[in-house]
Amino acid sequence: MLQVSVVRENIEETIKRLEIRNLPGKDLVAQIIELDDKRKKTQQELDAHLAEANSISKQIGGLFKEGKIEEANALKAKTSELKELNHQGTEALHATQEELKQLLYTIPNTPELSVPKGNTEEDNEIIFEQGELPSMDNDAKPHWEITEKYDIVDFELGVKIAGAGFPVYKGKGARLQRALVNFFLDNATAAGYREIQPPLLINEASGYGTGQLPDKEGQMYHTAVDDLYLIPTAEVPITNMYRDIILKKADFPVKNCAYTQCFRREAGSYGSDVRGLNRLHQFDKVEIVQLSHPDKSYELLDEMVDYIKTLLTKLELPFRILKLCGGDLGFTAALTYDFEVYSAAQKKWLEVSSVSCFETYQANRLKLRYKDKNGKMQLAHTLNGSALAFPRIIAALLENNQSEKGVKLPKALAEYTGFEYIN
RNA sequence: GGAGAAUUGGCAGAGUGGUCGAAUGCACUAGUCUUGAAAACUAGCGUACCGCAAGGUACCGAGAGUUCGAAUCUCUCAUUCUCCGCCA
User: Fold this and answer.
1) Which of A81, A334, A341, A344 has its CA 20 to 30 A from that of A393?
2) pLDDT by residue (tens digit) across A68-111?
3) Which nucleotide has the least CA–C1' distance to A40?
4) DSSP state letters, A335-379
5) Using CB atoms within 10 A of its CB, is residue A185 exposed (0-12), middle (13-18) or buried (19+)?
6) How far apart are CA A384 and CA A364, in angstroms?
7) CA(A242)–C1'(B25) in Å?
């Protein structure tokens, strides 16, 4: 969440940045400052009362030691009123702090200043394109027909076992997925990311740490008995490894990656957007996560973008990169690039990666800090990106590479699958 | 799931009602000494909030309570360890 001290010191900038999201920046900043003023006032009053009570207690202690019992008892009588004041003051302070926290939970991250103002995905900026869009015959099949033809992904079977959005991968489909795990993890490792296998269920504190809670409560599967959530992305457990951690400057940048399954309820989605592999309740993804010194985070973001470019190049998929506009930006992000691959039979761009810098927004919730050269605590920056999400990669591979002989896999991937054709 | 023990600063570890934000050791930082290093010695060394400052307040797993006063007593919860049970 936003840091009140930073908001106070950068009022105009905060307003400007919130307005990029089409939010009433002026009102929000005014609310924050008003509540924080109230908090300060409440705290000052309480501190004064506590100081007085502490001082009296010390006097009483001294008097008892000197054996002046009567004087001590006389002082005791004076404290009951103070006690009540302290009790009320503490409650008032807690209430105000809670109020401020609840307000801050509802305010998303402030977009980086270069983020284009805009309302919908129409306003996202295309900043890079690579690869020619394959021209397909009119009888080119969408991937859900190809998966059925070769019996590699079974949607019906998933419905039987779990429900819609939980496909069963079979035979070469399953092996293709396994190949992608190794392909993505090997590449990430070569790029300097340490491989992690995190828990797939997380507690409430972790959900708050990276900002899924309270904002996206309904998007996560929740296990009621144990009060745990299924992860919607590896970002959550990987970033939360560093909750309440103080890093050394030499630790930067911290680079981790993880392959996990991801679970999303995606309530309210329907239609052709969710057909086949386009949107699932359970899917596989390799995530890369970095922790950065604040001065370096945008450099690292560019580095992550470059890395993902190399993956898509190796997979020989046409893709483009979008810089998300303020209206389309995720709740916790300051700047996000989306990668979309072109899926030829659907004639659609499919999002396969989202790479973001969160600046201190997550770090503030996580209390993820480092000591600067003056020995002062500072919040680190967090970044992450998908590298990559499997289902839509598979959709694009199947659609773009279909032929009479079957689906031809790119060379880089065939090395991992052990077969060149799905047929 | 049952029984017992524990949870203190980066780490180890003292502290059972008042001058304890907390001994001591290690680690760390700076300095002295040395050609350099090590050793030794000297000093410093938690976080957050309030305050121009002096200083104040809070924090000893979390939350509540008893008390004029709680790291220390009581209750609830969490976690860890040991033993038993179950188990991939």
Assistant:
1) A334
2) 888 888 888 888 888 888 988 999 999 999 999 999 999 999 99
3) B50
4) EEEEEEEEETTTTEEEEEEEEEE-TTHHHHHHT-EEE-TTS-EEE
5) middle
6) 16
7) 29
Map residue A163 onto helix, strand or coil: coil
Round to a whole number and report the distance in Å from the CA of A377 to the C1' of B40. 33
A78 touches strand B (CB under 7 A): no
Give CA–CA dist A133/A343, Å, rounded. 9
Residues 33-52, chain A, CB closer than 7 Å to nucleic strand B: 36, 40, 43-44, 46-48, 50-51
Q: How large is the C-alpha radius of gyration of chain A?
A: 27
The number of residues making up chain A comes to 423
Q: Which helix (H) or strand (E) holds A239?
A: helix A235-240
CA of A371 to C1' of B41 (A): 29
Q: What is the pLDDT of residues A226-284, one digit of tens each?
A: 888 999 999 999 999 999 888 887 788 999 999 999 999 976 666 777 789 999 999 99
- Angle ∠(A308,A174,A183) on CA atoms, nearest 5: 30
Distance A87 CA to B76 C1' (A): 21
Q: CA A39 → C1' B53, Å?
A: 22
Nucleotide nearest to A75 (CA to C1'): B68
Write down all domains in chain A, each with its CATH number in brackets: 4-106 (1.10.287), 121-422 (3.30.930.10)
